[in-house]
Amino acid sequence: KMFQLTATPSSALADEPVAIRATGLPPSKVVTLQASLKDEKGNLFQSRAFYRANKAGEIDLEQDPALGGDYVGVHSMGLFWSMKPTVAFQRLLKRDVMNSPFCITLDLYDSVCFKDSATVPPRVSQMVQRWFSGPGVQRKQIREGRVRGALFLPPGEGPFPGIIDLFGNIGGLVEFRASLLASSGFAVLALAYFAYEDLPEKLLEVDLEYFEEAASFLLSHPKIQRPGIGVISVSKGAEIGLAMACYLKQVVATVCINGCNMVVEVPLRYRDLVVPPILPALEYSQVHMSGAVSLQRCFGELLNKSNHQSVLPVEKAEGKILFIVGENDECIHSRAFAERAMDQLRSHGRSTGRMLAYPGAGHLIEPPYAPLCFWSWQHKLACPVVWGGDPVAHASTQEHVWGEIQKFFRQHLVKTTNKL
Amino acid sequence: MAQLTAAPLSALVDEPVHIRATGLTPSQLVCLRASLSDEKGNLFYSQAYYKASDTGEVDLEMDPSLGGDFVGVHPMGLFWSLKPETPLKRLMKRDVMNSPFQIQLKLCDPDVPITNRDSSTLTASLTLERWYVAPGVTRIEVKEGRLRGALFLPPGDNHFPGVIDLFGSGGGLIEFRAGLLASRGFATLALAYWGYDDLPRQLREVDIEYFEEAVNFLLRHPKVLGPGVGILSICKGAEIGLSMAINLKQISATVLINGPNFVISNPHVYRGEVSQPTPYSIELISSNALGFVAFHRVYEQTGDVDSQYFFPIEKAQGHFLFIVGEEDKNINSKCYAQQAIEQLRRNGKENWTLLSYPGAGHLIEPPYSPLCYASRIPYVHPNILWGGDVIPHAAAQEHSWKEIQKFLREHLISTRTSQL
């Protein structure tokens, strides 16, 4: 019997779906499909699912249900988003986004293999490449004034709508989302703000003038549209993104994923203004049965305290704000903070905000098909932290959110220019 | 001067401890930490945050934990929420006669990162002893005929109801529950059946005649009350316990914790009659977001539905106590208990009691045992999910232990008085 395994396209952007099919199998045989990936540090991530071939000896992941394994049911991209690290608490994150893809090996075994290392060789294998930048996308290292980061430009003359991309307490420079967005036609500045090059090693305060410099830099670039830019931000980055929306007129469209509407932990400074932070109460942390820590209640307690000083004045934002909420976020009480911000907008008669809440999604909402990172090591606290999320719901959330983010930016950043 | 008290300092593991802190400032936030080193040097930890009263006291019987390993009023929470430093290690006492588990209780300043175990801001500490045998309990190594195990006898010259204690999972001789049951007045035989001494290194078949030898051995013992004996069994042990109760007339009372009502993996043999193991679908296993594997669906097409596989429980003469953890992710425990009970009902029998515990997992152990919600079984799988939510699991352990003793006393002692 000639076992065959096809994955189409075998080389694509990481946010594009892949159609996986197997043929030439014994009729009605239960087989194992396994996906394996080694990240840039050599850490192994794997997933597997068990499928039953039909009478013609075929399996089509777009129609057939997994019987068991890392997911159950019809999930054509399940092998990708259910991958898990073999060593606990590791997070899958592409660092070099220009020069190499993630290489995923798909293996088909003609029996049910559920132990970590199969005792039989696979009958057939296929390699799939997942790229984080499309053809023609350019990357420029940025060291302008204080600004540190990487600017991703789509191919062509432009001008392109400009976006600043902010991650959270992971620090350093995280580029993969910026490069993927650039592959969809946006000019994106992945901006670092601590623990990178000559930036401060620890985040002791949020200096909004630094982010204003970054915004001005972006707007001064010949390939970037004027007069306004967007911001895409997650976690701690989303708190900063929201502050940018409030205080910086050049920010006209802001996506805040699972962030607080208050200044938390470290003060926010902008010119003469110093906004005091509210401190999470660590005594409300909860140790998950795995030993990892859930911080959600520490931040949740902030909602009970009436610290108006620390609340960000969203009513001052002139641009549009899109709040993305994972309802199973174990890090912060994301929905409650987003609702507070939406209430604040309404009570000031502003209709600039919109909230999308996703049941089952966790804290780390990433581009489509990214594996759910349920928990990982958090360096600041020196312990593993639970991010939360139910795998199936989280995966469909990531797909939906990516489309909504691009729609939002196209609607509010791309202006039809009146050529006189 | 801050003080920490706990009473009693030395007790059986199934006895509660009253923990208090005094001499604090009003509303002072403190952290209570428990730590334990098992016989192999594996460390287990738990912690909880409390706010002192106006009189500077914390009383765990009345005051709620704000966060940490549990939330709310749980006087014994520090015990049952202990977690291994190395993930997936199960806490289990091996030498039950000569030493207790020692638990260090520490009262600390909470101004330290959550998982900083070696806090230098220690205010007070004490050591508790948790024993698995009461003073005067004797242990007799059993090596008669084929039998291998340990017999635990309560102190005194009386006759005691006899119980055979059977575990499942990894074979060997597990003694801690038998020692505890003996401390509560039962002559308890911890019986090994594979992976111990000169017993088979792997279980090939369940020879009920071996277990019949054990029953006869117990009944022959001068300190054992007859005319029947009881069984306390979990998981694979419960599968065997059920088989024993059906085939051996001297079984008067059988406690079945999270067991199947059909043959699993190895055939049962009794006087030439062989019961074959039930077919299963291994492809129905599934991994949760953390990568732990649930096995409870593998009998979905056979043992879960088809009565041809069921044990003929209606043939048993003794009484049954079914204990079910409804969140058992290892076997479909609730379904199997219900099937067995239905079969008894259909045959006009009322010799059963069901205790079904929402939120409890597979490994229901004596009170205050830490929830082991996943661990590894050598040769089977590196990370098996047992299931259970910490708080309801702890409550189930407390409640079921009392019910087990009541049940065994009712059906092992009253048979004797009814003969007079």
Automatic annotation (TrEMBL), chain A:
PANTHER family xrefs: ACYL-COENZYME A AMINO ACID N-ACYLTRANSFERASE 1-RELATED, ACYL-COENZYME A THIOESTERASE-RELATED
Enzyme active site: S235 (charge relay system), D329 (charge relay system), H363 (charge relay system)
Similarity comment: Belongs to the C/M/P thioester hydrolase family.
Domain of life: Eukaryota
GO process terms (BP): acyl-CoA metabolic process; fatty acid metabolic process
Name the record gives this protein: Acyl-coenzyme A amino acid N-acyltransferase 2
Molecular-function GO terms, alphabetical: fatty acyl-CoA hydrolase activity
GO cellular component: peroxisome
Keyword annotations: Fatty acid metabolism, Lipid metabolism
Organism per entry: Jaculus jaculus (Lesser Egyptian jerboa)
Domain BAAT/Acyl-CoA thioester hydrolase C-terminal: 206-414
Pfam family for this entry, one: BAAT_C
Domain Acyl-CoA thioester hydrolase/bile acid-CoA amino acid N-acetyltransferase: 15-144
Automatic annotation (TrEMBL), chain B:
Gene Ontology CC annotations of this record: cytosol; peroxisome
Identification of the protein by name: Bile acid-Coenzyme A: amino acid N-acyltransferase
Domain Acyl-CoA thioester hydrolase/bile acid-CoA amino acid N-acetyltransferase: start-end pairs: 14-144
GO molecular function, one term: medium-chain fatty acyl-CoA hydrolase activity
BAAT/Acyl-CoA thioester hydrolase C-terminal domain sequence ranges: 206-413
Active site: C235 (charge relay system), D328 (charge relay system), H362 (charge relay system)
InterPro entries on file: AB_hydrolase_fold (IPR029058), Acyl-CoA_thioEstase_long-chain (IPR016662), BAAT_C (IPR014940), Thio_Ohase/aa_AcTrfase (IPR006862), Thio_Ohase/BAAT_N (IPR042490)
Record keywords, A-Z: Fatty acid metabolism, Lipid metabolism
Protein source organism: Jaculus jaculus
UniProt record, GO biological process: acyl-CoA metabolic process; bile acid biosynthetic process; bile acid conjugation; fatty acid metabolic process; glycine metabolic process; taurine metabolic process
Assigned protein family: Belongs to the C/M/P thioester hydrolase family.
